[in-house]
Amino acid sequence: MSAASTTLVATAPARRGRLAADSGFVLIVSLVMAFLYLPIWILIIYSFNDNRTLTWPLTGFTTHWYEQLFQNEQLLTAIGNSFYVATCSTCLTLLVGVPAALALHRFSFPGKTIFRRLLLLPIALPGIVTGISMLNMFKMFGFNLSLETVILGHATALLAVVVTQVFARLQRLPKSLSEASSDLGANPLQTFIHVTLPNIRTALIGAGLLSFVLSFDEIPVTFFLTGRDNTLPMYIYSTMRRGVTPEINAVGTIIVLMSLILIIISVVFTVRDNTSKGIA
Amino acid sequence: MMGGTFLSRHSAKLVLGIPILWIVLFMLVPYGVLLTYSFWIKKYPLFVPAFQFGNYWTLLTDPQYVQVLLRTLKIAALVSVASLALAYPFAYFLVFRLKNHTIRVFLFMGVIAPLWVSYLLRAYVWKTILGTEGILNSFLMNIGIIDEPSGIFLYNQFAMVLTLTYIFIPFMVMPIYTALEKIPGNLGEASADLGMGAFATFWKITLPLSMPGVVAGFTMTFCLSFGDFIAPFLVGGPDGQMVANVMVSQFGAALNWPLGSALAVVMLIIVLTIISLSDRFEQSGKVEL
Amino acid sequence: MPAIIELSKISKHYGSVIGVEHVDLNVADGEFLTLLGPSGCGKSTLLRMIGGFEMPTTGTITLSGQDVTHLPPQKRDVNMMFQDYALFPHMTVGQNIAYGLKMKGIGKNEARRKAEDALELVGLVDKIDQQPHQMSGGQKQRVALARAIVREPKVLLLDEPLSALDAKLREQMQVELKHMHDKLGITFIMVTHDQTEALVMSDRVIVMESGRIAQDGTPEELYEHPLTPYVANFIGTTNFLPARITQRSAHETRLDVAGQILTTQFDRVPQGDRVRVGVRPEKARFLNGSAAPGNILAGTVSEHIYHGTSLRTAVILPDGTEFYVDAMLPFGMARADAPAIGSEVRIGVEPENVLLFDAED
Prior knowledge:
heterotrimer, A: mainly alpha, 0% strand, disordered N terminus, B: mainly alpha, 12 helices, 2 strands
């Protein structure tokens, strides 16, 4: 990071001041990165430590905590539930979010400002409000809580993520592309399929992957809307009541690994998309 | 249905209809029900419909709730300030000082990436670090700085601010970075050309132009930490309860949904107020670049 | 020639803002028509209404007799070449061109063959499998042209087609587009803010001003007989001088221009006596010695502006107005031959080159 190559065309004292400033900045950057990543490494390291308590110094290497995970029926069920919830809510939120982004981008209609405000509200709205208000509604209308109610809650909470990402991409797409398409004889649906969709594809994949991860990890909405079934984070949350255990670190490490894979996939898609258009 | 475009009527209806239906069904109706419940009365074993402001009155007068509300506001503010103090110089360095594009993108992604890692785990790991029997204490004992485990790290407001800053700092970096990136480089050059020093340039040019990003970041970190109940649960301790924890208990052990709903309404109002304030700021401070 | 497009009482309002106001216009089959004007004059809006991208607030548009006012673009037999070319970035050149054929239901092989023919026409047949981003601006422009004409539209719309090209290439493409028009025989309607482009390429030019048609005519008519000072100023350069009519007759009008007398044969003489005279700089010349009587303006040379092929000389008339005289610099003639700065000169203007307009308000 000290290799931060800044081009300096200045007099000696100015250069010295600049160098001092730059070392200050490098310090801050290193601090922020350490702040963000040391805890994650600690999480991972202690998942391989052969001691039930999480203390320094490390005592030895083991994969015991991982082996235990695979015998934990409850945990495996919770993982399965999380996959189900995350997959369904991602699909739903894309199905609603993409038309919403299109509407925001294409149309002007009365009440559009309120429409946009409401769509984007969940970005800054704590999940607990979404969770509680939907819980109230389901209760009032006599619906039983289940993984399906969780899916509806997640889709609502994550809608804003999809809308912002897809809308941002649509904004960058020249309007003339869809005009050219209709000029060349395509109806709106054909234009959407042949021109709009291929050009927002990577935004969809990115938004979809992010929704999946966020839904997979979601607690506040799930907390209120789940019935008897537990998702993975809810299961972890309940074991945390009993204190700190290396098993949690092991699950956490697996989740970190999974997130990392999804991040890489999304980066690869974005980069490939940019190079194929010569933006690089 | 206008818009000057040529989408046929049906697809236009569908495109607009689906999200509107969703918003009505899963946002407006639930908020309406929430509001309704907040006027009801708790009557053992459940609650009965009513229209009265008793729940709100309790929230505003019972010192127990007032204290929690004030504490939550304070912690959310501290988290936002701490995030800003770290995020601004970080983003500034990335945008204006770091000329290597690859390293810049890498560092920026490095800040965002933790958002993809479970938020529960990111809070949990601080519990393992700060606890009395935790990693920090045992490490300090191991190298001889302290003799016995100290309880000062965990179960207090410092631990909460630290953990929440850790969780929400990406939300501060992203908008500030975007705002700084939008400032044309030649503005700085023009300012230097006109004889302004680096500090004056920052104060008069860069900072005002990046304010929308700062406001957006502040809004997000403030609102999100305001409504958090995981960090208080894990690292907050007895005097670390926040509004969301009270809400959880009203819907759980205390079984007072009307009061919990009233609290949720209050939270919704506070969030909406902050959002519209920051919107207004953005509108008034909008500069065409 | 029969009209292929008829615009009748077309207006387009955006709320209280007027984009286009009350435009009537017929376009003959096979014509090269240009809509000319500064940005915001409504020319692009008019073109986009013909293409179907915007709907007029009032009025009707017919295309070969059929009312298409409210038809979407995909149902109109016209095609557009977009200013930014709007090539689909995720398709090859060939796929871009075949797109409009595919939408017509034409089979893959035939579409490919037609795409090749169209590329042949614009000289890019070897680029059929390239991606748009691999091409230069000029090549993209040709692909956009090929994509628009491959559907054999009745009318081709061109929205500022050359504005993204550099000066040299633009000049070359002006001629190429004109040849393409001759070869295809279909109607071209072009929008531009560049008067040279309009004069070089078009059969007919519509000059627009604030949403209305300011003048409609051939390039020669617009240049030689501008109806308004706006048109005279937008196309070419014009010296404007305040004047007073001293005598009217059937063939000639006599004017007092700052105490000097000019006659004109201009046929549209304004009602009032206070008028404005317009003279093109290149239609005025310096007189030496005691040459030709009448239609002479005297003044003092104040400045030379060198244009390469011509020299512009600024002359200050007795009343203080500045008057430009352009002289071509053909072989053997140098700027040194022009009257020296500070010297008294006499400028001769033929009566047929004196334009008349209403006085300024």
